[in-house]
Each structure stands twice: as C-alpha cells, then as structure tokens.
Amino acid sequence: MSLIDWPAAERPRERLLVHGAKALSDAELLAIFLSSGTRGSDVLDLARRSLAAFGGFAGLFRASRDRFCAIDGLGPARFAQLQAALEMTRRSLGEALVERPLFDSPVAVRDYLKLNIGAKPHEVFLALFLDAQHRLLATEELFRGTLAQTSVYPREVVKRALEVNAAAVVFAHNHPSGVAEPSRADELLTVALRNALELVDIRTLDHFIVAGHVVYSFSEHGKL
C-alpha cells in the first residue's frame, strides 16, 4: 500500500506537522527526506532498508557515494541531497559558534565536532581559534593521519594561531576506533601544545576527543 493510501494521521509528514520531528521514528524521518519509494516498495520500506543496511544514521551519513548508491532506491541525486543537508547543518552550527562565546553553547560545540569529524575513517586534528571573547575566528584541519596516529607539530600550531591573531585555542581530534578515552600520547600532546602556546600568551581552553557520538573533554576531566 502506498503512503498516500494511509490514513492522514499516520503519514510521517502529517505526523511531523502535528507532533513535531522528535515524535517520529528514524525511519519516518528518513522517509520524509527521501520523499518517494521505488516500484513495489513504499518510501517507509526504503527508509527502513537503508537504515538497516548502514546500521543507522551514523553509518548512512558517513557512507561513500558508491556504497550509498548500491542500495536499491538510492542513487547519486539522493546522495547529493544528503551531502547538501549535512553541509548546511555543519555551516549552521559553525555560524552559531561565531555569533557567541564558544562555551555559551557547549551542546552546539559537541554537535559541530561530531558532525565534522565523528564519522571520519581516519584521524584528523582540528584547531578552533578563538578571539579574546572566545568567539570562533576559524576552524582548521591542521593535520591528517592514519587510523593509528596523527603527527601534530606544536610550532606549526603556534604559527597558525599567531597568523589568525587568536587569543585562545580549542583542539579536537577523532578516534576512529570508537573509543573516546585519551591515550598517553594524547595527554602528552595536549601538554606540549598548551606549553608552546603559553609562551606566546595564547590559552588552551580544551581538547576534545570525538569517537562517533561520544565526545571526551580534557577540561571536564581535569587534564588541562
């Protein structure tokens, strides 16, 4: 049975308009995004199959184009739509960090980091450069490594911080292993970066480790 044959109160779009997006299941939300199914399969069936194939939204969001398009009913057009939606979300979160001091919106900081690096298959190291009021000046991917390690050079971080006239810095990197706990190497790196930046009067406010949907804060755990 097609969705148009469902009672209006049970259709995902109508349910969202009445009850809000939070009332919908993952499959219903994806069904609204996809908007139509395939021959012999309505859009809700397609949404369920897609989520099952990728293990949920996280897998869907990080899927390569080839893997995404291998699902019957998905394709390049929908892959492009999804990437555009994700990028709009990233930019919206980034704008929120520019408009107010970074730690006035801690949830937005974590959401921004999770969406940017949480699903990457390789390690990346980010620096969030802040002004004296802790508003975001720039976010830059300074280094990219293998699944096992990332090479980070304190002198390069200091050089870039001075170039953008930063008063403070927040660091973040991801753990593709899915374990958010810092390694001894992570702790030593954080100390080295903090000490190098202190020499030029730039504060290190935090270092986040992102593992999927989990975000570990050095500051909250007393490691800064």
Fold and architecture overview:
The protein has 224 residues and is an alpha+beta fold. Helix content is 45%, strand content 16%. The chain has a 5-stranded mixed sheet, sandwiched between helices. A hairpin with a 2-residue loop joins strand 4 and strand 5. Helix 2 packs across helix 3 (43-54). The chain is elongated and about 70 Å long.
The structural class is alpha+beta
Looking at how many chains there are and whether they match, the oligomeric state comes to single chain
The global form is elongated
Please give the share of residues in helix.
Answer: 40-55%
Distance, first to last CA: 58 Å
**What is the typical, i.e. mean, pLDDT?**
85
With strands numbered from the N-terminus, the spatial order across the biggest sheet is 2-1-3-4-5
Number of helical stretches of at least 4 residues: 9
* Gyration radius over CA: 21 Å
Q: Can you write the helix and strand succession as a string? A: HHHHHHHEEHEHEE
Largest sheet composition: 5 strands, mixed
- Count every beta strand, where a strand is a DSSP E run of 2 or more residues: 5
Low-confidence stretches: none
Task: Please state roughly what percent of the residues sit in beta strands, choosing from under 5%, 5-15%, 15-25%, 25-35%, 35-45% or over 45%.
Answer: 15-25%
